Fold this sequence. Notes:
By secondary structure, the chain is of the alpha/beta class. The chain has helices spanning 9-18, 24-29, 33-67, 73-78, 99-105, 107-124, 128-133, 135-142, 145-154, 166-171, 174-182, 205-227, 296-307, 344-358, 385-397, 415-423, 446-456, 470-483; strands at residues 162-164, 198-200, 231-239, 243-250, 260-264, 274-277, 287-292, 316-321, 333-339, 368-375, 404-410, 440-441, 461-467, 492-497.
Amino acid sequence: MLILLPVCRNLLSFLRGTCSCCRRTLRKQLDHNLTFHKLVAYTLALLTAVHTIAHLFNLERYNHSQQATDGSLPAVLSKLHLQGSNKWLNPIHSNQTTVEYVAFTTIPGLTGVIITLALILMVTSSTEFIRRNYFEVFWYTHHLFLIYFAGLVIHGIAGLVRGQTEESMEEVHPYRCAHYLTHKDEDCSHHCCQDPEFGSIPAESWKWVLAPVLLYVFERILRVWRAQQKVVVTKVVMHPARVLELQMQKKGFRMEVGQYIFVNCPAISMLEWHPFTLTSAPEEDFFSIHIRAAGDWTEHLIDTFQQQKNEVPRIEVDGPFGTASEDVFQYEVAMLVGAGIGVTPFASILKSIWYKFQQADRTLKTKKIYFYWLCRDTGAFTWFNDLLASLEQKMAESGKADFLTYRLFLTGWDTSIVNNVALHFDTTTDTVTGLRHKTIFGRPMWNSEFAAVATAHPRSVVGVFLCGPSALAKSLQKSCHQHSSLDPRKVKFYFNKENF
């Protein structure tokens, strides 16, 4: 089943690593794993509806044939069970049998109802609204896939769907012998006067399910094994706007920029695992995440760490897993766009750049980075102010002050902030962030930004990376198409988005 392969994250990370030398367009397909997963799910839901409706119509035909007394071929075939033979065709053997009775008393009917209900719950709870506002509902209902696959394997074993055997087909062919069956004399000696023999069509769904399920079981065993490895929380920092930073260490943990991990806190829930982008750099001796209060689980986690100051709650970690941001250093020019807490993968990238400048790394292919950070409130800028300030200083000392161009956009403000900025307009540093670049009020004019980048780098391949909402993704993707040249020798923008 193709629906399981896109959620085998270790497999995707392995493929991403083995495809490091592949063409960019091939590697980008791995970033659409969740989109592919959704498409397969919607197709599965559609085909399930078609399958169910077809069976309902078929059962009605069976029921009508069982009750028919007109001597027609369906009526004759429906009476074969009266001869005491197990070679019947019509599963309905009584005039009192209803479609509902077959649906809830037979193995195919009951398993069909169960797996259909499971599929409906999984699909409806996967909507954007449910996932964003009631993640626990999405998480728990999605584990109904265990019931779904178990029911799918059992669904056809009762042999409710039957067909004529090959031996009987040779003797009593339906096209040649239909007339003899409906007008058969008692002393008929023609071979077509024999009763046709029917047998169950063997269930073969397990053949399609077995390989992906085994692969997924191996994936889950690997995740459980990694989750059991000890994680040491070395530092806990509480940032403004209820953002918790956890710095951790784990034996054998290796990461790349832009990757993410799954985090579990047994004190809150043994089953819930939530994805968070790593904000540390591969060069650091720890790995870190920033967690914003955005739901019941994150609220409970932040409260748990605030209340238990002497004893740090146990944390389990699975990962890291690869994302599109891993490819940022494969581009000569990169545009990084983060919205709110969506800045986290780019914090990892910017930290890694700082270390590369510190170590005078000459293998760095990237020559220019444009960083855009959109925030609703001023408190969010304090999360990585120190990092941006250090980058400014280090690049100025290295004589590469123009390597990084960043723009901070404040999309929500009040009159007091505006008045304060107006009073200190002539200062060399920004009154909101304390950085050299001034904060811009409002949202970016993406057409102007892309046009400026295209003009500055007329023959470069520009990687555009986003961690943010889908509305912003559509706007950036549109700008990438508009400002990419059809001439392969000129500027080309490639859009990449984080997907969890």
